[in-house]
Amino acid sequence: MVEGTKVEIPSSLARPLGLIATELITNSVKHANGNVIVRIEKTELDTYSLSVLDDGPGLPAGFEVAKSKGLGMKLILRFVKQIGGDLEIAPGENDRGARFTVTFCSPRFTADTGSAVASDLLYD
Predict the structure, then answer these.
(1) Cα(98)–Cα(84) distance, rounded to whole angstroms?
(2) Portion of the chain with pLDDT greater than 70, in percent
(3) Do 109 and 8 meet the contact criterion of CB atoms below 8 Å apart?
(4) Number of domains in the chain
(5) What's the pLDDT tens digit per position in 26-58?
(6) What phi-psi label fits residue 97: left (phi over 0), alpha (psi between -120 and 50 degrees) or beta?
(7) pLDDT at 108 (0 to 100)
(8) By three-state DSSP, how is residue 24 classified?
(9) 28: domain CATH number?
(10) Which domain holds residue 28?
Protein backbone atom coordinates (compact mmCIF):
# COMPACT_ATOMS: atom_id res chain seq x y z
CA MET A 1 0.00 0.00 0.00
CA VAL A 2 1.26 3.49 -0.83
CA GLU A 3 0.13 6.49 1.20
CA GLY A 4 1.15 10.11 1.15
CA THR A 5 0.97 13.67 0.06
CA LYS A 6 2.07 15.28 -3.19
CA VAL A 7 5.76 16.09 -3.06
CA GLU A 8 7.75 17.91 -5.72
CA ILE A 9 11.46 17.30 -5.47
CA PRO A 10 14.38 17.74 -7.86
CA SER A 11 15.62 14.70 -9.74
CA SER A 12 18.96 14.92 -7.93
CA LEU A 13 17.04 14.07 -4.75
CA ALA A 14 14.43 11.79 -6.32
CA ARG A 15 17.00 9.31 -7.70
CA PRO A 16 18.61 8.42 -4.37
CA LEU A 17 15.19 8.41 -2.65
CA GLY A 18 13.93 5.96 -5.25
CA LEU A 19 16.90 3.68 -4.63
CA ILE A 20 16.40 3.92 -0.86
CA ALA A 21 12.71 3.05 -1.26
CA THR A 22 13.54 0.13 -3.55
CA GLU A 23 16.01 -1.37 -1.06
CA LEU A 24 13.64 -0.91 1.88
CA ILE A 25 10.68 -2.39 -0.01
CA THR A 26 12.81 -5.34 -1.15
CA ASN A 27 13.83 -6.05 2.46
CA SER A 28 10.23 -5.80 3.62
CA VAL A 29 8.98 -8.16 0.91
CA LYS A 30 11.63 -10.70 1.91
CA HIS A 31 10.72 -10.63 5.61
CA ALA A 32 7.11 -9.47 5.90
CA ASN A 33 3.97 -11.53 6.06
CA GLY A 34 2.61 -9.78 2.99
CA ASN A 35 1.77 -6.30 4.25
CA VAL A 36 4.11 -3.49 3.27
CA ILE A 37 3.25 0.21 3.54
CA VAL A 38 5.20 2.97 1.82
CA ARG A 39 4.36 6.42 3.14
CA ILE A 40 5.60 9.91 2.34
CA GLU A 41 4.62 12.79 4.60
CA LYS A 42 5.42 16.46 5.01
CA THR A 43 6.70 16.92 8.54
CA GLU A 44 7.72 20.59 8.50
CA LEU A 45 8.28 23.36 5.97
CA ASP A 46 10.48 21.79 3.27
CA THR A 47 10.99 18.66 5.40
CA TYR A 48 9.54 15.28 4.48
CA SER A 49 9.69 11.69 5.64
CA LEU A 50 9.68 8.52 3.57
CA SER A 51 8.69 5.45 5.60
CA VAL A 52 8.53 1.78 4.75
CA LEU A 53 6.65 -0.35 7.27
CA ASP A 54 6.06 -4.09 7.31
CA ASP A 55 4.41 -6.75 9.44
CA GLY A 56 7.33 -9.16 9.52
CA PRO A 57 9.19 -10.48 12.57
CA GLY A 58 10.97 -7.16 13.16
CA LEU A 59 14.65 -6.65 13.60
CA PRO A 60 16.82 -8.80 15.84
CA ALA A 61 17.54 -7.50 19.34
CA GLY A 62 20.61 -5.29 19.35
CA PHE A 63 20.45 -4.63 15.60
CA GLU A 64 22.76 -1.74 14.66
CA VAL A 65 22.34 -0.47 11.13
CA ALA A 66 25.90 0.89 11.03
CA LYS A 67 27.25 -2.61 11.73
CA SER A 68 25.05 -4.35 9.18
CA LYS A 69 27.00 -6.53 6.77
CA GLY A 70 24.31 -6.54 4.10
CA LEU A 71 24.93 -4.62 0.89
CA GLY A 72 21.37 -3.28 0.87
CA MET A 73 21.74 -1.56 4.25
CA LYS A 74 25.13 -0.15 3.24
CA LEU A 75 23.54 1.32 0.11
CA ILE A 76 20.65 2.77 2.12
CA LEU A 77 23.06 4.45 4.55
CA ARG A 78 25.14 5.84 1.71
CA PHE A 79 22.13 7.33 -0.10
CA VAL A 80 20.68 8.75 3.13
CA LYS A 81 24.01 10.47 3.75
CA GLN A 82 24.13 11.68 0.13
CA ILE A 83 20.79 13.50 0.50
CA GLY A 84 21.67 14.89 3.93
CA GLY A 85 18.89 12.85 5.52
CA ASP A 86 18.41 10.91 8.71
CA LEU A 87 17.43 7.26 9.05
CA GLU A 88 15.32 6.10 11.98
CA ILE A 89 14.51 2.46 12.63
CA ALA A 90 11.66 1.52 14.95
CA PRO A 91 9.04 -1.16 15.45
CA GLY A 92 6.20 -1.08 12.93
CA GLU A 93 2.58 -0.22 13.65
CA ASN A 94 1.20 -1.87 16.79
CA ASP A 95 4.80 -2.92 17.61
CA ARG A 96 4.77 -5.48 14.78
CA GLY A 97 7.38 -5.67 12.08
CA ALA A 98 9.76 -2.84 11.32
CA ARG A 99 9.54 0.82 10.31
CA PHE A 100 12.35 2.53 8.44
CA THR A 101 11.93 6.29 8.13
CA VAL A 102 14.15 8.61 6.12
CA THR A 103 13.70 12.29 6.95
CA PHE A 104 15.00 14.77 4.38
CA CYS A 105 14.72 18.38 3.24
CA SER A 106 13.64 19.37 -0.25
CA PRO A 107 14.23 22.76 -1.82
CA ARG A 108 11.19 24.99 -2.31
CA PHE A 109 9.91 25.61 -5.83
CA THR A 110 8.69 28.98 -7.00
CA ALA A 111 5.07 29.02 -8.13
CA ASP A 112 5.64 30.98 -11.33
CA THR A 113 8.54 29.04 -12.85
CA GLY A 114 8.54 25.72 -11.07
CA SER A 115 12.26 26.10 -10.43
CA ALA A 116 13.91 25.56 -7.08
CA VAL A 117 14.76 28.56 -4.97
CA ALA A 118 18.52 28.88 -5.45
CA SER A 119 19.34 29.44 -1.77
CA ASP A 120 17.68 26.12 -0.90
CA LEU A 121 19.65 23.90 -3.27
CA LEU A 122 21.85 21.79 -1.03
CA TYR A 123 22.08 18.61 -3.06
CA ASP A 124 24.70 19.03 -5.73
Answers:
(1) 23
(2) 86
(3) yes
(4) 1
(5) 999 988 887 899 999 988 888 999 999 999 888
(6) left
(7) 61
(8) helix
(9) 3.30.565.10
(10) 2-120
